[in-house]
Amino acid sequence: MLIDQQAGTVTVEGEDWPVVADALPRRTFAIISHPDAGKTTLTEKLLHEGGAIREAGEVFSKGNRRRARSDWMAIEQQRGISVTSSVMTFEHQGIRFNLLDTPGHEDFSEDTYRTLTAVDCAVMVIDAAKGIEAQTLKLFEVCRLRSIPIITFINKIDREGRSPFELLDEIADKLALDTAPMSWPIGMGGMFRGLYSFEEDRAWLIDKVGGALCPTIIDGAGLDDERLLAAVSSQTHDGLLEDAALAAEACPAFDRTAFLSGDMTPVYFGSALRKYGIASLLSALARHAPPPQPQPALPEPVEPDASDVAGFVFKMQANMDPNHRDRVAFMRVCSGTLKRGMKLGNSRTGKTIGLHNPIFFLARDRELTEEARPGDIVGIPNHGTLRVGDTLSERSGLAFTGLPDFAPEILRRVRLDDPMKIKQMRKALLDLAEEGIARVFRPLEGSNWVVGVVGALQLEVISTRSEAEYGLAIGFEATAYETARWIDIADEPMRKRFIASQRANLAEDGDDALVFLARNGWELERVQKEWPEVSFSAVRERI
Ligand code: GDP
Question: Which one of 1, 214, 344, 424 is at 20 to 30 Å from 93 when CA atoms are compared?
């Protein structure tokens, strides 16, 4: 990256950007991982490295996040929606980074998935001892759906873990991605002595000074550098040379085009806890991650340099206070410069919405900015007029496409305490389904509706909001079903035959699309084999 103060430009990977107030290049990204791999720690250290927080843990400790979440869930919470940790923005080395939080753990929901539709790049954190875990895989699959480029960070190399080669092989095998190691640990676990960056030709070594770990940096080192030889045992040094030679032979060199198309991942090793490898990861985001990308839309994709404002809503956060039914819609700006007071058309309703109180996410120490540019996120408070998937734009007839609905992983029958209120319950469920909070399934046989969610937290949200907003006490009961697939059959006679044969397992969702409810994976597989012409889909695009 080159900053030319006189010309007033910054050059990132061959692209020139003017350095004026807020027109900095953007990097909009998320971090994906399995719980406990170190996402919270890494986020905090990245924010610290980027100057967004002065002391690690200042605004982003796990305790704070937990509190924020439980605040949000508490019905008696005062007016005000905590959105601060959803979008974290910082400016570093002439680039504006927008880091979108993807809640994990028990917060896991469709918002986590959909947030990935609003980023241009993802950092995948892997625990060096555990490799690729279930949730990493799920989140990765969503990234693949959109060909989102992935930067890999193998964390916890200060602890006993698996060999770097084994980890690289696993990524290549399980994710079908080429891996390009950009750095390498010098020893691991008890033998951990530092990191070597092939990319920067730099070694970070760990000294024991007064019992504390502190790094020595050897610049322009080269693997045979005498300073490196002097600092580590010959056994460790030999190991590094051997590994580096083997890695150069076995792994392809980093190819940015393959990375940007989602076929290759650059791999960085490090320790979030000890802050090793963080600076390299941040500069990788600056150097390699793509700027805001064109977004799929009808009648044609929206280019980030188009002058009119357009964006899509990818997430909704509701205020749990029943007296204030306001919600915050999170919108990714895809083109134009969004300003306070602007009026944008909603392509779903045909109505215009005035942006009187948009929430801009600002980097620390920045004066109040009243604009958002492509790649930025704005929060739009509203009273239920906006939904996940909505397009807001100055252009009429524009609609973003490709926001996915995901097959639910938890299916529950809805139990209504007062059977007289069945009509209200159906309305409430359909409203919440439209908002994107849950799927609703109406079985073709029987009258009991089923709700489907991908995270247990969504069930809590449904019952809390049904009570607060519709005065309904509802609970959930187990169903025989474990999973659901959207069905597509081109041939009409075959569609009729399929429905007649599988009627007991079929339902319609809130948009009247046909859905197959399966008791288990085995049953799903059996029916799929029986009906090879029928497409069973775990993801459905909202258009
Ligand atoms: P999350 O669940 O993915 O957000 O993970 P956390 O950031 O909360 O980390 C989970 C645990 O791993 C915590 O106890 C961290 O202190 C620990 N941890 C995170 N990064 C490292 C690391 O680089 N080395 C070691 N030894 N522990 C780490």
Answer: 214
